Amino acid sequence: MNEGGKKPLPPKLKDFFKKRRALPAIYLACAILLISSLMMYEVMNGEKDEVSVTNSAPASKEFDDSTISVNGEKGPEEKMSKPSEADVTVKTSFYDEKATEGDQQKALVVFNDTYYESSGVDYALENGKKFDVIAPLSGKVTDVREDAFLGNYIEIDHGKGVVTTFQSIADIQVKSGDKVSQGDKIGKSGRSLMNESAGVHVHFEVKQNGETLNPDSLYGKAVSQWK
Hints:
The chain is of the alpha+beta class. It has helices at 11-56, 101-105, and strands at residues 89-92, 108-111, 114-117, 121-124, 132-134, 139-145, 153-159, 162-167, 169-170, 179-180, 185-189, 202-208, 211-213. InterPro entries: Cell_wall_metabolism_enzyme (IPR050570), Dup_hybrid_motif (IPR011055), M23ase_b-sheet_dom (IPR016047).
């Protein structure tokens, strides 16, 4: 044999080295395929999350508080009731400038030989006894005063610019800041120095945005129906 000469590799060794060179290529191809699969999974998963967020977003629009009343509860608009469930009669009516002369005389209160136009309605029982006075609408008590001249005083704010006041109240059952529901008892009828001739009664007034209204024209009507 010649020194330094090259001999050809046997066929088995050639196959072995070919396989050794092929393995890295196979590993590399597998790695690329695995990485590609992971990236595709992340992209698809991210798209699903975006679709989920997009589909759930409109749920926040379902909340509607447009029908919340003054006492914080939802429901149909209340219709104003009389300030008592007792069988009361009108002792002194509301003074209406458009009323007949006879009706206007029934709406005058005499005190110290002076006539005053009634800005509300005085209710009393035929037998002259006390009766429960109730809230005609739900609202918040904004003022309570002991006043011998007016016969004690309660004010309730019903929202939408509506305020009701009660005079000649005995046995007051509420305090300023209390929330009341329609029909809640707030006191009993009493007496006042302003209108002693009315005896045991309650003087009831209604105002909307500062304008004094005739209570008798509002019973059974929601505030949105007042004119």
